[in-house]
Amino acid sequence: MYPMFANKTHKEAHELLKNEQIQDAIKTYTKAIKQTPNHPDIYSDRGVAHLHNKDKKNCFMDLNKAIELQPEYSFRYAARAFAKRNFGDIKGAVLDYEKAVELDPTDAIAQNNLGLLLEEQGYKNQAEKRFKRADKLSKIEDHLFEVIDNLEEQKQAERKVNPAQRIAINPIATREKEFTTKKEFKKIFTSKNQFKDFLRFIKNGFKIK
User: Which of 20, 156, 201, 204 has the largest CB neighbor count within 10 A?
Assistant: First the structure.
């Protein structure tokens, strides 16, 4: 599993994109690629920047490259599906979301977005199955937060009682599956309610209700 940022320049580009400095972000991502060639995250992130810039050709060039470099990672297909939806390719988006959930059936967001597209095409029964799956996964993730919170509290209590019992944690193992620990979730969502609100937001067609 790759680290969140390939290099310092990659992180700088990410900050520029967050601040909506699109052109500067694209240039900085390009520098990051030169420093760390063939890193899928940089290509994927630059593809998102091109999406913000409404540059279809370069957007898909980068997202396709990310898939080429990491073909078994579901997020790559979900990212391209999102871009296809934005550029009006509904059928292509459906195929990519189907691939994403095939690779990772526990991806609640991909399940939900696929449901939205199926609903848009008139496949209401299929869409409802995806929505139910997404909601179920959301509840599982809520439970995961609760379990991790309890474990953290327990570990902190144990450390106060007997610090000598601390054990080393394998940093590589903790990152083997993205978005499966509280630390990973917090990179995107700052709270459990925020994640649930986000799912509700996309399920309502990206509208606040």
Answer: 201
What's the pTM?
A: 0.67
Question: Quick one: pLDDT band at residue 121, thresholds 50, 70, 90?
Answer: confident
CA gap 199, 208 in Å, rounded: 11
Q: How far apart are CA 198 and CA 57, in angstroms?
A: 29
176 pLDDT higher than 50: no
Q: State whether residue 173 is helix, strand or coil.
A: helix
Residue 8 has pLDDT above 60, yes or no: yes
Domain assignment present for residue 178? The answer is: yes
- Do 200 and 98 reside in the same domain of the chain? yes
- Residues 63 and 166 both lie in one domain: no
**CATH number of residue 55's parent domain:** 1.25.40.10
Stated length of the chain: 209
Four-point Cα dihedral 121, 56, 49, 53, nearest 10: -100
Residue-number span of the structural domain to which 113 is assigned: 91-209
Helix (H, G, I), strand (E, B) or coil at 21: coil
